[in-house]
Design brief:
- The complex is a heterodimer of chains A (136) and B (239).
- Chain A is mostly helical.
- Chain A has 5 helices and 1 strand; from the N terminus they run H-H-H-H-E-H.
- Among the domains of chain A are: 46 residues; 40 residues.
- Helices cover 71% and strands 1% of the residues of chain A.
- In chain A, helix 1 runs antiparallel to helix 2 and helix 2 packs across helix 3.
- The termini of chain B are far apart.
- The longest helix of chain B has 18 residues.
- Chain B has one domain: Spore Coat Polysaccharide Biosynthesis Protein SpsA, Chain A.
- Chain B has 239 residues and is an alpha/beta fold.
- Chain B is built from 8 helices and 7 strands.
- Classes of the chains: A mainly alpha (136), B alpha/beta (239).
- Chains A and B meet through helix 4 and strand 1 of A and strand 3, helix 2, helix 6 and helix 8 of B.
- Strand 1 of chain A pairs antiparallel with strand 3 of chain B.
C-alpha cells in the first residue's frame, strides 16, 4: 500500500467513526448507506487496479477518473437541489410568520387595556401574497 | 391628506420612539398619519406602552414577526396591513432609526399630488453626508440596477419612498432581506411599462450617524444582495 492510500483509508475511517457517534440515534439508515459506500471506496483505495480495469473497459484512461466524473456531476446536482429545498422551506416559514403578524397586529388607538385585533381571527391564508400583481 | 407610514423596526431601542414622537407632533399638518410598525423579531419585543399614544390625527399599528426575517419581509407585512386598512393618499416606507428626516416628508409626497404614482428619495441631491466608500458602492449598484431594472435613478438604495395605492398594490415584496430595494425597483419598472405608473425622484437628506453606519448595511452586503437576487431568479416560480 502506498502512503496516499494509507492516508485515504485513515480519512475514511475517521469520518466513519465520527458519523457513527453523531448518527447513532436516528441515523441508522444513513449510517448503513455510508458504511456501504465507504466499503466500496476502501476497496478502490486498496486495489486501484480494479477501477483501472473497469475504466479501460468503458474507454476512460484512469480508474480514478471513472469514479470522480460521475461523483462530481451527482454532487453538483445534489447541492443545487438541496439549496432549492432549503430556499423553499425558508420561503414557507416567511409566509407563515408574516401571516401571523398581519393577523395579530394591534391598533394602538383602541383601548390600551384591551388591545383589539384588527379583524377577527380567521383561517390563516398562507397564499396571502397578491398573486395577481406578480404577473405585472 | 392621509399618510400611512410603513416602518420596519429591529432592535431600535430609543430611536423608534423619538421618530414616532416627531411624526405624532406633526400629524395634524399632514391631516392624518398612521404608522405601521413591524417589529422584525427584535431580541426584546417592542411593547405598545413604549410607543407614543394614539391621538386624533395619529395612531400606531404594531405588528410583530415571531422570528427575525429581514427588512424586506417586514415591509411586506406592513404593506399587507396597510392595504387592508382602506384608503390613504400616500404610503411611505421610512426607517425607524432616524436617518430619514421628517422635514423631507412633505417634499417626498408632493409628487403624488401632481400626478406621480411613486416617489423615490435621492440622497445625492439633498444635503447628506454620504461616506466616500458608501458613495462608490451606491454608484456601482446604480449601474447594475439600471441594467437589471431599466430604471435610471440616481440613488440606488434609498429606503425613503412614497407610493399611492395603485403603485403599492403593484409592488409585492418577496425578497426578505436587503435585496428588496432592487426588487421594488424591478416591480415599479414593470408597473411603469405595463400600467403606466409614473415615477418621480425627490431630493432628501440622509443623516449618517455612527449608529446607523454600525448597524446598517455594510458595503460587503452588496454581495449578499447579488446572491439573494440570483437564487430568487433561479428558484422562484418553479415550485
Amino acid at each position: 500500500m502506498t502512503l496516499a492510500s494509507i492516508g485515504l483509508l485513515a480519512l475514511v475511517a475517521t469520518l466513519l467513526v465520527f458519523d457513527f457517534v453523531a448518527l447513532r440515534k436516528g441515523g441508522t439508515k444513513i449510517l448503513i448507506l455510508e458504511v456501504a459506500a465507504f466499503f466500496g471506496a476502501g476497496i478502490l483505495i486498496v486495489r486501484p487496479e480494479f477501477a483501472n480495469w473497469v475504466a479501460h473497459k468503458v474507454g476512460i484512461w484512469r480508474g480514478v477518473d471513472f469514479v470522480i466524473y460521475p461523483l462530481v456531476v451527482w454532487l453538483f446536482r445534489e447541492s443545487l437541489l438541496s439549496r432549492h429545498a432549503r430556499w423553499r422551506e425558508s420561503d414557507r416559514v416567511t409566509r407563515l410568520v408574516q401571516a401571523l403578524a398581519v393577523r395579530d397586529a394591534v391598533d394602538l388607538s383602541a383601548s390600551p387595556a384591551a388591545p383589539r385585533l384588527l379583524r377577527t381571527p380567521r383561517r390563516l391564508s398562507l397564499r396571502g401574497r397578491t398573486r395577481g400583481a406578480e404577473s405585472a | 391628506m392621509a399618510v400611512c407610514i410603513l416602518m420596519p423596526a429591529f432592535n431600535e431601542g430609543g430611536t423608534l420612539a423619538s421618530t414616532l414622537l416627531g411624526l405624532r407632533a406633526n400629524a395634524e399638518n399632514f391631516g392624518r398619519i398612521d404608522v405601521i410598525v413591524v417589529d422584525d423579531g427584535s431580541d426584546v419585543a417592542i411593547r405598545a406602552e413604549q410607543l407614543p399614544p394614539a391621538g386624533p390625527h395619529f395612531t400606531v399599528i404594531l405588528a410583530r414577526h415571531a422570528i427575525n426575517l429581514g427588512q424586506g419581509a417586514a415591509l411586506e407585512t406592513a404593506r399587507r396591513i396597510a392595504l387592508g386598512r382602506g384608503n390613504y393618499d400616500a404610503y411611505v416606507t421610512m426607517d425607524s432609526d432616524g436617518q430619514h428626516r421628517l422635514e423631507d416628508l412633505p417634499a417626498l409626497i408632493a409628487p403624488l399630488k401632481s400626478g406621480a404614482d411613486v416617489a423615490f428619495g435621492n440622497r445625492f441631491r439633498g444635503d447628506s453626508n454620504v461616506p466616500p466608500i458608501r458613495r462608490a458602492v451606491l454608484f456601482a449598484a446604480g449601474i447594475f440596477e439600471r441594467i437589471v431594472t431599466g430604471l435610471a435613478l440616481q440613488d440606488a438604495h434609498n429606503g425613503y419612498r412614497a407610493f399611492n395605492k395603485k403603485a403599492l398594490t403593484l409592488c409585492p415584496i418577496h425578497q426578505s432581506r436587503m435585496a428588496h430595494a432592487t426588487e421594488i425597483k424591478q416591480r415599479i419598472a414593470a408597473a411603469q411599462r405595463h400600467h403606466g405608473v409614473k415615477i418621480a425622484e425627490v431630493a432628501v437628506s440622509i443623516r449618517y450617524t455612527e449608529e446607523s453606519l454600525g448597524k446598517g448595511q455594510s458595503s460587503l452586503g452588496a454581495f449578499t444582495i447579488l446572491r439573494d437576487l440570483f437564487f430568487r431568479y433561479l428558484f422562484e416560480g418553479g415550485s
